[in-house]
Design goal:
By secondary structure, the chain is an all-alpha fold. The protein has one domain. The longest helix has 47 residues.
């Protein structure tokens, strides 16, 4: 019953945001741009089907033995609906993570489910950062960019490299117990330290699950990162398809550069609800750096927004289907409050 209410709450929230987005964007505007994009819009929607399939396969790989309890179809639905909830969450794009934990807890239990979600989030981040780093280096080497843009890319590459190293450290040493040690050292967080102290054993077990694939099956870990990396290649290919759809001849390197720029802008402006204007601004800056009409960035953003509407609708429909009603009893050590 609780799972049903949980899913209904997420579905209603998502449906409300979806209705708001459509009304704010305008039905007439959506239809006009669908007609302008033509068949290329279908190809773009299908590109994101590949993206989500790659994401799901990467998650399935790092789950290891626990992944056998979850079908690929269920994990795919959780992946899509989780990303959709992240997208429509007004702040930090993290609303989908509690949903994922709840959706998988019936098969894995709360503790393992939390570890699985954090583990995949880290693998997802690592694949993303590595692709951004590659895109930045390729752009600096291949494209003729203004000096100010090149300088900004170099700074971004340094910051992204630091994020990659920290994420790898988390895969190697864990997240929960190092966090507990930091909390224990800060007097202002003593109440939290006492609370976490009650779950020390569970935190150690979750870190074990979190680091297991890194230490015991490096091939699967590397394969999962590669799949996430390839999903980002597909996202850059989306930019290439949209540009070709309006007759702008550009290479894949330029498309990767545009994806990298708007992705960085979106991450810098994470506090803007629904990324409204952030992507378009990033595309505007990127196109200007390539000496392509910057206003074209508005059209690219519009087409991507319509593609998002399609997947938001699909993700919302997946929410009632993604959670199975087969909860497993948990020990007291596993009952960690979310």
């Amino acid at each position: 019953m609780k799972s049903r209410r949980f899913n209904i709450a997420f579905f209603l929230f998502g449906a409300g945001v979806f209705a708001y987005l459509v009304s704010r964007f305008g039905v007439d505007r959506i239809l006009q741009n669908i007609e302008r994009a033509g068949w290329s819009l279908l190809y773009i929607v299908l590109v994101w089907l590949i993206v989500y399939l790659l994401n799901t396969l990467a998650w399935k790989l790092v789950l290891g033995e626990s992944g056998r309890r979850i079908t690929f179809a269920q994990l795919f639905m959780v992946t899509v609906s989780g990303f959709v909830i992240n997208y429509i969450t007004p702040f930090l794009a993290l609303g989908g993570e509690p949903y994922k934990v709840k959706a998988l807890s019936g098969e894995l239990g709360t503790q393992r489910s939390l570890s699985a979600v954090v583990l995949y989030r880290m693998v997802h981040l690592l694949g993303h950062m590595l692709f951004l780093l590659t895109g930045l280096l390729v752009a600096l080497l291949v494209l003729s960019l203004p000096l100010a843009v090149s300088g900004a890319l170099i700074v971004s590459a340094i910051v992204i490299s630091a994020v990659v190293l920290l994420t790898l450290l988390g895969h190697r040493q864990g997240v929960f117990t190092p966090m507990q040690r930091v909390v224990n050292r800060l007097r202002i967080l003593r109440p939290l330290a006492r609370l976490l102290g009650k779950y020390t054993e569970s935190l150690v077990e979750m870190d074990t699950a979190l680091t297991e694939v890194y230490h015991k099956d490096r091939k699967k870990f590397s394969a999962a990162i590669l799949l996430e990396y390839m999903s980002r290649v597909c996202m850059a290919f989306e930019v290439y398809l949209i540009l070709r759809g309006v007759g702008v001849e550009t290479g894949l390197v330029a498309a990767i550069f545009l994806y990298v720029v708007y992705s960085i802008v979106i991450n810098l402006l994470f506090f803007i609800p629904l990324n409204l204007g952030a992507r378009e601004g990033g595309l505007y800056l990127g196109l200007g750096s390539l000496a392509i009409t910057p206003l074209l960035g508005i059209y690219l953003g519009v087409v991507m927004r319509i593609r998002e509407f399609v997947w938001i609708l699909i993700g919302l429909l997946f929410i009632p289907l993604a959670t199975r009603k087969r909860p497993e009893p948990e020990t007291a050590a596993e009952q960690i409050p979310l």
